[in-house]
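The pair is quoted verbatim underneath.

:::
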Amino acid sequence: MVRTRARLFYTFLMLQLPKNRREIAKIQSERKRAAVEQALRSPFWKKRIPALDLSKLDDPEVWRRIPILDKDTLRALGDAQFYGEFCIAQHDGVAEYWRSGGVTGQPLFYPRSFRDIEFGLESFARTFDCAGAGRGERAHVSFPMGIHPVGQIYSRCATSRGITVNWAGSGTSTPSALQLDLIQRLKPTIWLGMSSYALHLANLAEARSIDLLQLGIKHVMCSAEPVSQAKRHKIERSWGAKLTDNFGMTEAGMMGSEDVPGAGFRIWSDLYFIEVLDPVSLEPVREGEVGTLVVTALCTNNVTPFLRWSSGDLVTYSEADDGAGPFSVFPRLRHAHRTAGFFKIRGVNLGHQDLEDFMFRHLEIGDFRAEALNEGGNDILRLSIELRRGTDAAALTQAIASKVKESFELAPQIVVLETGTLAKEFESNVKAARFVDRRG
């Protein structure tokens, strides 16, 4: 009992926000060494990490001798290798499994120990603090509640901040019409879910003559999808609420949140050690330059030692600006969005993010889907759009066609859909299939 209380008190101290960057540097120095010592208990890492002086890990040259772990290396491991060689055998017990976030290949299920969960819950709870949401508020959680951890961890961690929760889940478990009904009846002040689902609910609300602006939502909290300025403004207009975007990965946990909308994510650098490296040379880039993100989990590594994990994210990095708020002690990351997909149609590379920004800048458009098709031997771009009430469909489609031609050098085929059509089609998906290549 005494040992358990001592461990809980130690964990409590570790979860307190650092006061300054000197404190963070001290925390990182201690936890980086602990992370490497933990990794050396893994057969996978034991044969990969060269002989190191663990007292000199703060020396960048020593630290960078640790090989980078990338997705291809992890995917090459079968279940037997992953659980038998990568994972650490001795720990405080497996509490649950978190599904890997990739959409290609067979997913892995990462064991999370009870101690991992203590830190995981706090890493999610900090995002409520960044959003300015707190005790006495009510949250409607529309993230999936299945094998992806984000929905259930958000719902569980809200208790630590005195926030009431409705575990709604995504549209597959609670249909969108019922979600809107619950929001009207239970009157939450916080809505959490994918940014694409926020748009779908807004469109469905308009189709049902429900005014979201009158429902009392003050905070919209999103994660797992890029949020452009155009998408942010559209969601905030539709919901009448401030949008706070959050960033995490199942290999580590919830890593950071916006304290200023659109300014980038404050990364919990007391829980995660981050590096931003040149994608080719793997040397550190200068502040503000685009590089690939490499992450070392400093606390959620009791079973899965993710050491120098290359997530594939392209980001820019800026140092902390102490004194600008309680989270200003942490550095900021911003996604470069260079990894976003594109269509190549008639020799033109059409970026998905560029097209999404273009479409959502038009206030008359409620939602859209872009498809690449081949008809009669020719590639075409089809834009299916839903319009807000009172919009002159003929005039807008003509204007959109002209502007797409002018901006992207493609003449689109435009189809006007009844409001709510795309929301119904997207509802069963975790992430909206907004861009679809149907050319086979």
Notes: Confidence is low (pLDDT under 50) at residues 2-10.
